Batch of 4 targets.
Target 1
Amino acid sequence: MDPICHTLVGAVLGQTGLERKTRYSRVTLIIAANLPDIDVVAHAMGDTASYAFRRGITHGIPALVVLPFLLAAAVWAFGHRRPPASTGPPLSFQGLLLLSVIGVVSHPVLDWMNTYGMRWLMPIVDRWYYGDTLFIIDWIAWAILGGGLLAALRVSSEHVAWFRRPACISLLTFSAYIAMNYAFTQSAERAALVALAEDPPVRLLASPVPFDPLRREIVLEYPEEYRFADYRAFTGFAQRQRVVDRGDPQHLAVARTSLDGRRFLHWARFPYSLITTRDGSPKLVIADARYVPDIENPRLDGFAVLTLDAPTD
């Protein structure tokens, strides 16, 4: 998910009663909820480095063990240099560690919800896992979490049962929203398989879209092409006319001879290729149909597109 969603989750968690565990509880939860994204520095090394490192070593299970200890130790060291507070809970390393674990774990769980995917077992096993449940920027998630945070800041819940606290209600509603979207994705995939029973795809993806949780864009993989469809809550499955040729399989073999090609193809879920000309020289362009489903006007640069020098033969 996007940084706003992660930050809101950390902030809302800090209004559920967890803030009574230790000093600096709220700031610890907010930092922890964003901490695995320290791998964003990979962007500075180029697009393919980003594909290789993002949502990997800082998001995997080993990191989920190490990062909370590092954050708790840093906040504890900072807190001991500050004068003790006259009110509120005392500084507690155990409390900081608990909050760090909760915040850090929330991050990859939410990232797994997207079509981009998550690598839970890094650096032990470099394998992608996909939830295909939420679009990476979800305004409804913002509204649920932001509304809960505003209500929690305005309404005292010190002596209120946990399930009646605005922050807890917000998190429960958000969880229900995630469950609804997961079920809708499964419904879209089943509807596609039923509609295409006589010509079933090799694989398919029912992808969430921005602004509309009751719609899925479907990528259908066939041996030589990708087809596309839509699934809507009230109108059902409808296949589009667009077809994307997957290209010559040897193109991908050529791409794998380069580091950039190997990185991109390990990340790409539905890759396709074409040979085109740019500045008078032939180029091998590889794109991922998850994000670039248009072969007629291919982008030679940008997200989900890799451009390499084409082989002379």
Note: The chain has two domains: 3-180, 249-309.
Target 2
Amino acid sequence: MSVKDVEKLIDHAYKSSLVEAINLITSLRERIIEEKKEGRSGDVRIRDALITLPKDSTIAVVGDIHGDIHSLKYILTKIVEMEILENGYLVFLGDYVDRGPYSIEVLLSLAMLKESNNERVFLLRGNHEPPPDLLPYPHDLPYQVMRKYGTEGKRLYECMMKLFNELYVAAIVEERVFMVHGGIPVNFNSIDDFARAVKLHPKTTYLEEILWNDPTEYLETWAPSPRGAGRIFGIKITQKALEILKVKAIIRGHEPCPNGYKFNHKGLVLTLFSRKGAPYFNEKAAFLIIDTKEFTEDNVRNVLERGIVIF
């Protein structure tokens, strides 16, 4: 894939007809369903809503995009220039839509990116890719769809909601890092709870917490979230989670960061925010490039910090 390919992909997303858009979203959904049936995509193992990336690999991780096509274009251009998609992996942490004017174009671009790099690109689910009972506010995606395609755009929105329910909720590099949109369910018992989170919803709060939870420095355990869904969790929850999951750090999105990123819990939790501008008005955004072979017990934060790309 070249920089010109990125430009063509973005341009195609702008110009896609309603029929093309529906076909792209439907094809992406079917591709993910097929991956789950096969239990793998290339060297990546798949179990329900959980993906397991090869232990020693180069991974690019992208946080919230929220309809910011310009930031997405910049990120994809840099990743292509660094040849990450040749031998590494690209993981998006969710929140592709809402709060930015180009939600449709972002999602269509990612669908085409996945189509052309199927075994290298993986999309996690954010709280703005919601189940119907956990709609965020504002959820302006349906209005954007109808503004672009008219009342017939409702068909596309319905396809998008079906797609959202198939997106993965977590990714792990065993003994290295765990990736999720929001955070750790405060009472989960094993990695199986992530794999089965969608199937268990709404009988358990696992999916809600995966999509909505936030780390905090103000308590050690947890409390209800001021967002109205999910919980805030302290360092003891993180430490317990790292022990259960047998990893060294958690990488997540979900929270705006003025500098594009932030650390919590003594460097054990990294938040990435990968878009700029209104309504967040952050001057900087960030994404991450890491070589997971570099992790040891003592250098987790250093490895993560070295890999942060700010723009």
Note: The first helix runs from residue 3 to 15.
Target 3
Amino acid sequence: MNDCADAAATPSPLLVIISGPSGVGKDATLKRMQARGAPFHFLVTTTTRPRRPTEVEGVDYYFVTPDEFQARLTRGDFLEHANVYGNWYGNARSDIEHALAQGQDVLMRIDVQGATTLHARVENAIFIFLTASLSELEARLRARGTETEEALQRRLGTAAREIQARAFFDYCLNNSENQLDETVDDIVAIIRAEKLRAKPRRIWFRN
């Protein structure tokens, strides 16, 4: 019996967490993967943050009111949730479980606080940390033009602390300016390599 061939025929679906500080390009990375036709299920996060002009409901995020978010939180809908810079973010466990049950690899982008929560609640997920220099992060945040100077400085201060958390992730990628395709290539390569593990990861949730 060719055990490697048998394992490769039905690889276990993966849960891949893309995280990193504000301005590192988490959203841009997943959008580029989608544009290139990557065959993954891209989890859509629910947030109370106001929708930006370029964002699409149900594609970038599910945008809800604080009351709607709290109602879902009370029902226990979210696998993890966090308040980030005054706005709530949450990811539904049912969405993840449904995609995995269909044999789909699930990719989700999440802030560092949320990734820490998932470390404690999900076994065998793949955690990928995107990083960049603080000067690059500042330039991107300023170009985005969505924060006051005070809010921007608060994000940069948080980013400096969050970058130190990269040692707790499985992989760390430098998402430098104008290297988005290289970052996507690296993520695809990581997933391919994980599919070839002699001992496959099998996702399960702790209660």
Note: Residues 180-195 form the longest helix (16 residues).
Target 4
Amino acid sequence: MTADASGRRPLPRVIAIANQKGGVGKTTTTVNLGACLAELGYRTLVIDLDPQGNASTGLGIENRGIETSMYHVIMHEAPLENCIEPTAVKNLFVAPASLDLAGAEIELVPAFSRENRLRRAIDAVLDDYDYVLIDCPPSLGLLTVNGLNAAREVLVPIQCEYYALEGLGQLLRNVDLVKRNLNPTLEVSTIVCVMYDARTKLADAVVKEVREHFGDKVCRTVVPRTVRLSEAPSFGQSIITFDSGSKGATAYRGVAKEVSGGPAERTR
């Protein structure tokens, strides 16, 4: 774990990346934020909690036929360290999902201590990392509840399009529900505006509305909609390895600096 200027080791940050709307750049944000934090020198673990497994494949991990996945961690309490794979980015690791995870939502219903499975698994490896990023499914099932219960913070990507705030109120209510009943330390710490199209007035209007609602929780850096960001996952790469000089890579580097610097970095 990385020490700060005083030589002390700060507490690892466990961040759930969540949005109940699909197609809002949640996995793209998880993968590329993770890669950029790793590039800054932070040991970073991406936990793929989405049965689609896009964070895993987006980091070059073939999730078909893997012996130990997040399904085994959640359902059979396999040690998380048995599931973790290195990626092509130094300091970046991934705990992959498999299609079996889709059945975990149902299998967890009668399970003992079902909301705490992920928290216990992460606690066992937490000292090895500076950041743990949890890519939650786009729904509020038991997998997402596990992710929110294990996290200390929630990062919400919001697309710069019409209906951008649709469902956000429900997400905030659900975060509050988890906070009141399971995880009293949970907070929405960061909101990232993604899929920004500078050619439209609507995108500017959405960013302005989000900033008015959420103040310094909103990153100053806005992530543009770019072809290169869309192409990178199909090559199993983050944007910083796929096209390091692209606008998308520059934007996610900016987001990583703001996340690691906190609100003070956002108000500079």
Note: The chain has one domain: 11-258.
